[in-house]
Design goal:
Shape of chain B: globular
Number of strands of chain A: 5
Distance between the termini of chain A: 17 Å
Largest sheet of chain A: 5 strands, parallel
Radius of gyration of chain A: 18 Å
Shape of chain A: globular
Helix content of chain A: 25-40%
Distance between the termini of chain B: 36 Å
CATH class of chain A: Alpha Beta
Strand order of the largest sheet of chain A: 1-2-3-5-4
Number of strands of chain B: 12
Largest sheet of chain B: 7 strands, mixed
CATH architecture of chain A: 3-Layer(aba) Sandwich
Number of helices of chain B: 12
Strand content of chain A: 5-15%
Largest interface: A-B, 26 and 28 residues
Radius of gyration of chain B: 19 Å
Oligomer: heterodimer
Number of domains of chain A: 1
Structural class of chain B: alpha/beta
Helix content of chain B: 25-40%
């Protein structure tokens, strides 16, 4: 096992992943693979794209972000802590009885817009928020991060039709396309292909990017809407468990309920710059 | 009742710009006036109920008050999870207006019969459930929904029902209505079965039995205090509802009775839809007759409970 093959990830990405490892380690459990696959997406959004005020999480002018694939929450929690929405010490109480942060995002957490965890809910909630911006003549954008397996839910495509009908230019559906779901590959469990064509067919402007390429992601988000008068789908080709060689594309790391101290040590070592 | 209800939504929308209407695929020209005069707050989103609840949630999170309207079963059965998570968990000001509560769509068969809507929604924290008896009552209750905090399910009946709700009482969400006084037995009812209960009470009066009637337009939060107070005055009770007796009004009252300390046990029967799917069609009235949700059965059951020989 070579724990040092983390080529391509900069210190920002590695540092956030180390925070994720420590967060999950404090509970000895969690969805590591689904969190590791979205670190760059969340980093680019929070570091370079979205408007927000950590001290005033409900500031009306903020851009809205919904983690519809709620099981990737550790990636969001470390970012929100890093930005100061809440104290980093909360990460150490992950999944504790009286902790702020549970195994899926809850709306009472500063910076979390909606409780998610049951898949297939976030896009429609985001559409409601995007419609509100139009109704109230506000200029915020709504970013909804979907899992690829989540796109098996019919409600996603109900929402996609609606977003297209309303021409929601201020809505960006981001898909974490790591080609894996809990049981196996998406191609075997419930094939999504032709995936980009599906989103195009549902009326979205579609951009495909390497979901770990910070520059590519930034360009995709900054150039939204990809097509005038249409909602945007950014399909992010990602690697589940990206960051440590032994977690990448390793289904054992989708969710673990017994993460050992040795696992933590190996992970932290692999995530050194 | 439905027309009154939707007209109320339009009235509310004209007065309050937080009000939004969302339909699924309703009949042609539904709320045309709303659509023509306030098009930006009128949405007809197609047969996509799960999405509609989520979209309503997103709008409500931003401070709007969406009124969502479609057939009851599609709102409540199909969207149960969206109602639990998107609306009730977040405690949002979304109003769900369900057409055809109970057995209204009798000729359309079991796919369209909303018999367990009250039972399932009652289990959800933060939910409020309204089941008005007539058009006048829905008009009164709709006025109250605008300032109510949290999600509300409004169960609509067929329409054209006789006006039976009294004018001289205070209508408040969560407050029951004392429709009739009587010392021999109490009939507790909700929705359009108030009409049946009144007919039963008149029939009983002709036999010398004084039946009181407590009308429950708000099944949740239930007016527990009034139910206990009224029950303390009578030896027996009957619940009457156009829905399943498992988990509905009858069950709600049974829970109260079981935990209350009345000294003497109460004689008690629930009348409603039994634990079976309907395999009949016909009319709402026929289905209700088939299930014994009739004035005659309520009266007969009352006589048996209080041990008065009928006929």
């Amino acid at each position: 096992m070579n724990g040092k093959n983390n080529s391509g990830l900069d210190e920002r990405s590695l540092g956030l992943r180390r925070m994720i490892v420590k967060t999950l380690g404090s509970a000895g459990r969690g969805h590591l693979g689904p969190a590791f696959s979205i670190v760059e997406i969340i980093t680019v959004l929070y570091d370079k794209v979205m408007k927000f005020k950590p001290g005033a999480p409900e500031w009306n002018g903020r851009d809205r972000f919904i983690l519809s694939k709620g099981h990737g929450c550790a990636a969001l929690y470390v970012m929100l802590a890093d930005k100061g929405f809440f104290s980093c010490s909360e990460l150490e109480r992950f999944c504790k009885y009286d902790g702020l942060l549970g195994g899926h995002p809850e709306f009472n957490i500063p910076g979390v817009e909606a409780s998610t965890g049951s898949l297939g809910h976030g896009l429609s909630i985001g559409i409601g928020m995007a419609l509100n911006a139009r109704l109230r003549r506000m200029d915020y954008n709504v970013y909804v991060l979907l899992g690829d397996g989540e796109c098996g839910e019919g409600s996603i495509w109900e929402g996609a039709m609606s977003a297209s009908k309303h021409g929601l230019e201020n809505l960006v559906a981001i898909v974490d396309y790591n080609k894996s779901q809990a049981y196996g590959s998406t191609s075997e469990v419930l094939d999504l292909e032709p995936f980009a064509d599906k989103w195009r067919g549902f009326g979205f402007g579609v951009v495909e990017v390497d979901g770990h390429d910070v520059g590519g992601l930034l360009s995709a988000f900054k150039n939204a809407p990809a097509r005038k008068g249409k909602p945007t789908a950014v399909i992010c080709h990602t690697v589940k468990g990206k960051g440590a060689p032994f977690t990448e594309n390793n289904m054992e790391w989708h969710h673990k309920n017994k993460i050992s101290d040795q696992d933590i040590d190996l992970l932290l070592k692999a995530l050194e710059a | 009742m439905r027309k009154t209800c939707l007209n109320s939504v339009y009235d509310l929308a004209r007065r309050d710009d937080r009000v939004i209407f969302i339909g699924s695929d309703l009949g042609v020209s539904t709320l045309d006036e709303f659509k023509n005069n306030i098009p930006e707050r009128f949405f007809m989103e197609g047969i996509s109920e799960q999405h509609i609840i989520g979209m309503a949630a997103g709008l409500a999170m931003e401070g709007n008050i969406p009124y969502v309207n479609t057939i009851s079963v599609f709102l409540t059965r199909r969207c149960f999870e969206q109602i639990v998570l998107d609306l009730c968990l977040h405690n949002l000001n979304v109003r769900l207006i369900g057409n055809g509560g109970g057995l209204v769509y009798a000729p359309l068969g079991p796919t369209h019969l909303a018999v367990e809507d009250i039972a399932i929604l009652r289990t959800i924290p933060n939910m409020t459930i309204l089941a008005p008896a007539d058009a006048k009552e829905i008009a009164r209750l709709m006025e109250l929904t605008i300032e109510h905090d949290g999600p509300v399910y409004i169960r609509l009946a067929k329409g054209g029902d006789h006006i039976v709700t009294p004018d001289d009482q205070e209508y408040k969400i969560g407050k029951s209505i004392r429709v009739r006084e009587g010392k021999d037995i109490l009939i507790i009812t909700t929705g359009v079965t108030l009409q049946i209960s009144l007919d039963a009470a008149r029939s009983l009066a002709s036999k010398g039995v004084e039946a009181g009637i407590l009308h429950i337009h708000t099944i949740k939060p239930l007016d527990t205090k009034a139910i206990i107070e009224r029950l303390a005055e009578v030896p027996a009770l009957i619940t009457v509802e156009e829905g399943t007796v498992i988990g509905g009004l009858g069950s709600s009252v049974a829970e109260i009775v079981a935990e209350a300390d009345f000294g003497q046990p109460k004689k008690f029967k629930r009348i409603g839809v039994p634990d079976t799917f309907s395999d009949n069609f016909g009319s709402q009235k026929e289905l209700m007759e088939g299930f014994g949700i009739t004035a005659a059965n309520v009266a007969q059951t009352a006589l048996e409970l209080i041990d008065v020989k009928s006929g």
